[in-house]
Amino acid sequence: MNSKNIGLALMLFKTYNIFLRYSTTIFIVALLTLTVFIFSCSNEKNILTDEEACSVFLLDKENELEKFLINLGDAYWRYYVLEGAPDLKENKTKIANFFYDKNLLIIIEHWKKKEVQIKDTLLKRRIEIWDRLRINAAINFDKDVLSLQGIIEQGLEQEMKESDTARQDMLEKKAIDLLKIRNKKAKKMGFSDYAVASVWLAGYDTLWYYKSVEMIDSMTLEKYKVLIEEERKILKVDKFHLSDVYLIYEKYANELEYPGLSKEKSMTVIKNTLRDMGIAFRLLPIKKFVETELMPPSTGQGIAVKIPDDFRIAVISEMTITAKFHEIGHGIDWMSRKAKTPILKGYEWMKGGYAPGFAEGAAEIFASITIKKEWLQRYLKYPEEIYSKKQEKLKKYFPAYMRYYLFQFMLENEMYKDPDQDMTAMMNRVLEKYLLTERPVKNGFPVANGMFISQPIYQHHWLFGEMMAWQIHEHLKKQFGEKYLQNKNTSSFLIETLYKDGEYYPWQKRLERATGKVLDVHTFLKEHME
Fold it and tell me: How far apart are CA 204 and CA 367, in angstroms?
């Protein structure tokens, strides 16, 4: 064999050895890949068929999601107290990306379809909440929605520092665009519009919700008509305008205030009230309690950054004792939650993950303490005759108060029915229906409003929350007597029956477990007008 052939043979031999070496490597890699694939398929099959495997998988995801929500809560705190939150968009984007996980979505949808077969009641409730979170993410954490919302929120922050007409016009146009894109995403998920989607995500039965709105309208209408005719003479107006009706509304709201209480006195009274109910204020994990300027239209914020260990309160300097009680009430709710898994803690930044009507009700349980006769006499030495006169006025102006509530939140609902409509004309239609105004407003209202942008379709929660608080107080009175606010069992009752389990029970079920019935809208209205 000549040298040329010998060289060729050596080259072929080396090539063969290399082939064998790399073939072995390729085979091993292929085998490992196949093993991983088979294991993954087997694991996925377990998650899709085995309740325990699904529960473990979801717990891992819940812990991951909670970290994002804690960071988002901290960013929102800084946003509301005007410290600046450049990471607000970043934190929302992380949550959006979390819900782009196709495997997670497949698992949620799969178990939701077979929820009637789920034996583990805890898993069943978690799946229900996860499904709402999935739908919420597709609507409110859509990248286009987040981008546009972020631009408007940044613009509103700039407006706080320096007002600019051109910027205001730009923000108004973008706010209308945001209505449209929210509607588009809601319709894609099967809802008629964004407002309806929001009502459902908040845990309301939509049929119950709209029937309750109709009940409030019908039960207050005749008394409201009588009231405005009486007020027409007092106010000396020929045709009612929104500004005139607001003066009537204020006559109710003013009876809820207690002037003369200093900031220091207010906090002393609050701490003593909580002490008598069995709650030590100094032991509550309230990390911050500040008085400062806030992002409009907010006048107070109670933010659960990490449940149950990090709650923060910010109020404007002129905040009343009633409003301070409200924010503290939020904290007592969230700080008392001993949820079995993170998804049941009820972080407020994820629609679908908590019941905002219940949250506002929990806050209002404490705020409405300040209208109770026993409390007024004990802590403010309030005279009996003044209290009686106050109650007469509250009942007289209650229909105006309720209908003003209706006007406010139905106005926002109507915005989403047709974002292209003339908003001023729409506002006048809502005014005529609920407040019976006879003179139209001319300039409408700004859609680029912090409430509409950052907390859309939220205002009705305060109304239903007030009803829930009233129902709880009525039950506490029956359970522990007239002096229930000086009974330490009161706080134990609230924690054990309403707060402890977090979102394990739907909010109406929680109320029913505590008081024996779901929200009693009819009796609430009747009791406040007779």
Answer: 23
